[in-house]
Specification:
It contains 13 helices and 10 strands. The model has no long low-confidence stretch (mean pLDDT 94).
Length: 378
């Protein structure tokens, strides 16, 4: 609980953005300066020990490397040097499969960079939790079913894995309480038709486990519709989602990402403006604007470099980096047909589009006095 009495659940932003707290960088961007990203979402490996039915990683195949411990430490040093504020281990692989992921967290946080992780939670040991939980802003457990049979079907794993994941979540909750840690612990469901009956049971399970939140999100699809996501279908889930949200308490938040679940995959912006503020890299070391563009077919137009071959600080300062960033913001790029739908950068793009078109005057914005949790994860 915060000093003002507010709980972690009341200070979470799970369906929106936090750009209003970074207007200094927005002003630099408007002035044409080459700004450092605020947030980076990365994977430390493309390997994964799960086979989730809806996994986007199958569409992200690219040539690359197995990142070494030195690659990771150099990257942690580089992002601090250029002024990055936060790094989260998500993207196209299960980072806890990398043998040096804990070393990376330690180096990044020692350098003053906020760190967080999204994980299936299977491979993390209690010893690792003891090392990293005091350093992390949040741990998000990716879990799209509450019941054993549904879990094994959707995530492509054994019943033993299901039980291990729940035990690991309980261990994290116990350690957080024992040590009085500030880390936020949450569950995330990717909502697809195959797990629609698990929405309410998962909301209930999250409360029983003692995590801070459960968030229910859409499934992203490529511009080619390769995963077959039916964005019209989500409208029919409104009653179920509201039933799930009713399991919220003062200390536990259940939240559907309504803005993306109900927008039918539509965008109001024509260009991608968010990349200067939040860029990504693949578990292969590939630096690209976003996860939608990791696939090898995008190599010539969008791939920027690889941290196994070139230090990230040098990639960031290269003309190639800014050539790609500038192309995505140009009239030659059409976000409505040249990339996927409801991406990681979507909410930031909406905000920046309103700034660019004059719908928002940042000099007239009122910045809330109270910052939300994880303010540097925009």
């Amino acid at each position: 609980m915060a000093p003002d009495g507010r709980t972690a659940a009341s200070r979470l932003v799970l369906d929106g953005h936090k750009m209003v707290f970074h207007l200094d960088r927005v002003r630099d961007w408007l002035a044409g300066k080459r700004i450092a990203p605020i947030t980076m979402d990365v994977a430390l490996t493309r390997r994964c020990n799960f086979k989730c039915s809806y996994c986007y990683s199958q569409l992200q195949q690219n040539e690359g490397h197995e990142l070494t411990r030195q690659n990771l430490l150099d990257f942690a040093d580089d992002i601090a040097e250029i002024g990055l504020k936060a790094v989260s281990l998500v993207s196209d692989g299960e980072s806890t499969c990398h043998p040096h992921w804990v070393d990376f967290i330690k180096r990044a946080t020692d350098n003053g960079v906020d760190a967080a992780i999204g994980t299936n939670g299977y491979a993390i040991t209690e010893e690792q939790f003891r090392e990293v939980l005091p350093r992390l802003a949040y741990v998000r457990f990716n879990i799209s079913a509450a019941e054993e049979a549904a879990y094994t079907r959707i995530h492509g794993v054994s019943a033993k894995a299901y039980r291990q994941v729940l035990d690991n979540i309980r261990a994290a909750v116990r350690l957080k309480r024992e040590k009085g840690l500030a880390v936020t612990l949450g569950l995330q469901m990717v909502l697809v038709k195959d797990c629609a009956d698990q929405v309410v049971p998962l909301a209930k399970l999250g409360r029983e486990l003692g995590v801070d939140y459960t968030v229910i999100k859409h499934c992203s699809d490529s511009e080619l519709g390769e995963l077959g996501v039916d964005y019209e279908w989500y409208a029919g889930m409104e009653r179920t989602l509201k039933e799930a949200e009713a399991f919220s308490t003062p200390n536990y938040l259940v939240k559907a990402k309504w803005s993306k679940l109900m927008n039918r995959g539509r965008k109001k912006y024509a260009q991608c403006l968010a990349i200067p503020f939040m860029v990504q890299f693949s578990g292969s070391g590939l630096v690209a604007p976003c996860g939608f563009l990791f696939n090898e077919r995008y190599r010539d137009k969008y791939h920027i470099g690889n941290i196994a071959e070139t230090r990230f600080k040098d990639i960031f300062r290269s003309e190639r980096y800014w050539e790609v960033v500038d192309f995505l913001a140009s009239q030659d790029f059409d976000a409505n047909c040249m990339c996927g739908t409801n991406c990681l950068q979507h909410k930031v793009n909406e905000f920046l589009w309103d700034v660019k078109t004059g719908a928002i005057d940042i000099d007239r914005l009122e910045v809330p006095k109270e910052k939300p949790l994880h303010v540097n994860f925009i």
